[in-house]
Amino acid sequence: MPEVSFYILSSASEQERCLFACKLAEKAYRSGEYLFLQTGSERQSRMLDDLLWTFRAGSFVPHQIYSGEVPANANRILIGTGDAPQNRQKIIVNLSPQPPENLQQTERILEILNADETIKQAGRQRYRHYQQLQLAITTHKMNG
Fold first, then answer.
1. DSSP 30-51
2. Looking at residue 14, what DSSP letter applies?
3. In CATH, which superfamily holds the domain spanning 3-142?
């Protein structure tokens, strides 16, 4: 069963939320882990795609938008609106309003919430969902 970590940001900015996701993706990449960024929309997927190239000077995080076909190359970071593909489910950063499904291969789910009321409300629903699944949940309030 996966562990779930909620990161609570003080800002209501969607940009800040996506930047935090980029930092988590970079950390996973540097650790040699596969990570799937599950988004709530194509627009959000494109925003993450752009930010992963520019969020930090000198940073390199190989990634691509997942369109139903697992890449032949070794991109460690995939971005998509649907469920993570097979063998890419170990770590899921969830920016979607819905919880990820098919968690058999998932070790960690990273939820990023911000001060936007819609985001917080959807996060509370996912928190209850994870509680019902009896998953281990931790919460981290991020400053700044």
1. HTT--EEEE-SSHHHHHHHHHH
2. H
3. DNA polymerase III subunit chi (3.40.50.10110)
Q: Where are the domains of the chain?
A: 3-142
Q: What is the pLDDT of residues 31-70, one digit of tens each?
A: 988 899 999 999 999 999 999 998 888 878 889 999 887 7
Pseudo-torsion of CA 36, 41, 42, 45, nearest 10°?
Answer: -40
HSE-CB for 31 with a 13 A CA cutoff: 11
Q: What digits encode the pLDDT tens for the residues 63-91?
A: 999 988 777 666 679 999 988 888 888 99
Supply 103's token pair: 């968690």
Q: pTM (2 decimals)? A: 0.93
Helix (H, G, I), strand (E, B) or coil at 79: strand
